Structures are given as structure tokens and as C-alpha cells.
Amino acid sequence: MPRLPFVVVGALALSGCASRPAMPPPVPEGQGASKPLDFQVKRYPGGEPYDIASDRGSVVVLDVWATWCEPCKDALPYYQDLANEYAAQGLKVYALNIDEDPRAIPTFLEETQVTLPVLMDENAQVAERTLKVRGMPTTYFIDRKGVVRHVHEGFAEEFLAKYQTELEALLAEPTP
User: Fold this and answer.
1) How many Å apart are CA 134 and CA 115, to the nearest integer?
2) DSSP annotation string for the chain
3) Quick one: DSSP state of residue 126?
4) How many CA atoms lie within 13 A of 57 on its CB side?
5) pLDDT at site 19
6) pTM here?
7) Which ranges of the chain have pLDDT less than 70?
8) CA 83: distance to chain centroid?
9) For the purposes of burial, counting CB atoms within 10 Å of the CB of 46, is it exposed (0-12), middle (13-18) or buried (19 or more)?
10) CA distance 77 to 172
11) Which of 23, 94, 134, 169 gets the highest tally of CB atoms within 10 A of its CB?
12) Is 135 left (phi over 0), alpha (psi -120 to 50) or beta?
């Protein structure tokens, strides 16, 4: 009987790839209302460095995903559409991958027809330590100052209108 709580906790931990958020989204630790997000990762496939600070002045959508995540297959094409629609207004969209083995990425991108820039989060260090990701996918809407303004855990089509409204509001804000 004492093992039941551990089984439940384990099952919840393994169900991180969910289609709907179950709890209010977290605000990344140290990323308060006015502190810009700060991290560096590598671009896929070439390994060139990427620093989130380089996109200050743009609104950024950062989608944390993995090839084994079924809802990610629905989310990434939607974010691809947003990137195409709002690029001229200053929107940049990145797919931050946390897979241990990047060999599955090309097949995933081909199947989903996604051409977004992919960033590699080796050992999920940024996802776990900086962003405090609890489930897949988790998407961050970052304003022109680099501040996380909205966090969405999971993905469900009924939230698409809300996501678009949030992004349009961020894009309407003046460039600092």
C-alpha cells in the first residue's frame, strides 16, 4: 500500500506529453515580469550557436518539443503557419528540441512538413533548468524585450484562437 503514491507520481511524470494543460503554466524561475529570458543553445543541424538575446526587438515563439511527443506533431505545423503569417510583423518561431539522439529529427520534420529553425537543447538543460518545462510540448511567447509573457503546456486546437490573440497583442506592442 505505501507504494501507491510512488506509482501515481511515476505515472504522472511519464504522462508529460499531454494534449491539454492540467495546471496553470509556470513562469520560468528567475524570469519575472521584467527579466529577459537568457540562454544559449546550438542550431540544428550545423551546431552553430544561438543566443535568445539576439532576437530582442522581435516577438519570439519558442516551442519545446521532442520527436516522441504525439501532440508536438499537431503543434509544430500550427506554429509554422504562424511564422509564415506574422514574420513580416516581427515574429520569429523556433522549435527547441530535447531529444537525446537528433537522428529522428529529419524524419519528424519531413512527416510534419515543418521548416522552422530547430534549436538543440543538449540533455534538456535549458528546458529543465531555465524554462522549467513539465510536459511536452510547452510553448513560450516572448515579447520584444525578451520577457516571457505567456506559457502554454500541451496543445489543443480549441486554444488556437487564444494563442493567436496573445501573439497579435505582443506584435502590436512598440519595439523597445
Assistant:
1) 25
2) -TTHHHHHHHHHHHT-B-SS--SPPPPPTT--TTPPP--EEEEETT--EEEGGGGTTSEEEEEEE-TT-HHHHHHHHHHHHHHHHHGGGTEEEEEEE--S-GGGHHHHHHHHT--PPEEE-GGGHIIIIIS---SBSEEEEE-TTS-EEEEEES--GGGHHHHHHHHHHHHHSPP-
3) I
4) 2
5) 42
6) 0.83
7) 1-33
8) 14
9) exposed
10) 23
11) 94
12) beta
CA atoms within 13 A on the CB side of 118: 22
Residue 22: what pLDDT?
Answer: 39
* The three cell numbers locating residue 158: 480549441
Neighbours of 110 (CB within 10 A): 9
Instruction: Give the model's pLDDT for residue 176.
Output: 85
Name the one residue in this structure whose C-alpha cell is 509556470.
Answer: 26
Question: Which position has the grid cell 501532440?
Answer: 71
